[in-house]
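Field log, afternoon session.

UNIT: design team B
ACTIVITY: writing a sequence onto a fixed backbone
BACKBONE:
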């Protein structure tokens, strides 16, 4: 499906969203609050960077114990996920600061953990946020033949076990970023014309991609191989362990927000029309979880308030808890859904049930 031919029947103009934006804007104005990061966000930024960089420095310098070094790699995985969830995510949405240079700099932190900021913005901002759970458009629900994330996708025999093996595959998400995925995405996005949305030439994007990947592997893998106390094979395994921890954390946060039993997974008709407006699609295909858990919300960058994030991606996540009351009340006033799981465990369980249902769907369009 060509992105230029897909559109909502009522794009961005529902009465609900107009009223909601008015109320949220009034909240910031009446309380004299900036929609960008505050002091607490700056402290979090320092902390997340520290739990990624400090263990790495210790691995290169003073540590000799195999078990302690392994623990440091695990902590780095937690820090890697924290940087992605809490810092670069807001920055690449231009929600961290009103200064675009600050957003650009912090957005490039994804390159420090193996990803690529340009491809990420295209996949996440352009495709996922615009066409959430829309078949053929949202790449977050497209894993090829490995898993079935939508009832609109074909069913393969192996999918009957996806509720079991998915958790293992999730752990490889960030290692794919660091190796092959970004190159494949660049080729695909260039053909689709999506690289034009980033204000840079294809040559500049490609050279930046090669440079960032080379730098990442040279620093994060080559330096520990040279200066670390562990053998080369143990260092390589620990590098993969770090990525597995980060990938599993990231998937566990993002998947229960969209691939859940309440999602409706819209599919464009032959003319590319989606029978919904954009804001309603966000409510129908997104869920919150563990909204009362402040420490959990702190670590995951407020992305347990996924509804608020999708409706207002240009607002820093430190404000989601407050505006969530406005969003929920306004949705109910307009007889629209506001899906939320009480706990993180309930959200994960909902995602697991969805994986099972999609993998054992007798009414699937095709079985091979």
């Amino acid at each position: 499906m060509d992105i230029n031919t897909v559109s909502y029947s009522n794009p961005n103009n529902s009465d609900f969203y107009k009223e909601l934006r008015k109320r949220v804007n009034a909240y910031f104005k009446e309380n004299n609050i900036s929609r960008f990061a505050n002091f607490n966000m700056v402290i979090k930024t320092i902390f997340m960077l520290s739990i990624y960089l400090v263990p790495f420095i210790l691995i290169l310098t003073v540590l000799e114990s195999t078990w302690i070094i392994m623990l440091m790699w695990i902590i780095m995985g937690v820090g890697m996920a924290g940087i992605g969830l809490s810092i670069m995510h807001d920055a690449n949405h231009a929600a961290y600061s009103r200064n675009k240079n600050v957003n650009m700099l912090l957005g490039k932190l994804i390159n420090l953990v193996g990803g690529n900021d340009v491809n990420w913005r295209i996949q996440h901002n352009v495709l996922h946020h615009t066409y959430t759970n829309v078949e053929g458009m949202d790449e977050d629900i497209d894993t090829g033949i490995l898993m079935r994330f939508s009832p609109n996708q074909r069913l393969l025999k192996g999918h009957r076990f996806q509720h079991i093996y998915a958790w293992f595959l999730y752990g490889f998400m960030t290692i794919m970023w660091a190796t092959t995925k970004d190159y494949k995405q660049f080729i695909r996005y260039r053909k689709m014309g999506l690289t034009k949305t980033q204000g840079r030439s294809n040559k500049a994007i490609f050279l930046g991609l090669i440079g960032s990947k080379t730098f990442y592997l040279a620093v994060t893998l080559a330096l520990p191989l040279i200066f670390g106390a562990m053998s080369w094979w143990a260092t390589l395994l620990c590098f993969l362990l770090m990525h597995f921890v980060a990938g599993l954390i990231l998937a566990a946060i993002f998947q229960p927000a969209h691939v859940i039993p309440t999602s409706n997974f819209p599919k464009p008709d032959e003319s590319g029309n989606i029978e919904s407006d954009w804001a309603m699609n966000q409510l129908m295909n997104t869920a919150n979880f563990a909204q009362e858990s402040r420490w959990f919300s702190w670590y995951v960058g407020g992305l347990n308030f996924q509804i608020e994030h999708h409706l207002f991606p240009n607002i820093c996540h430190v404000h989601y808890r407050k505006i969530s009351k406005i969003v929920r009340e306004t949705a109910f006033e307009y007889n629209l859904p506001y899906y939320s799981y009480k706990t993180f465990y309930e959200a994960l369980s909902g995602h697991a049930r969805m994986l099972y249902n999609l993998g054992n769907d007798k009414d699937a369009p095709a079985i091979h």
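LOG NOTE: The chain has one domain: 3-359.
NEXT ACTIVITY: expression trials, pending approval
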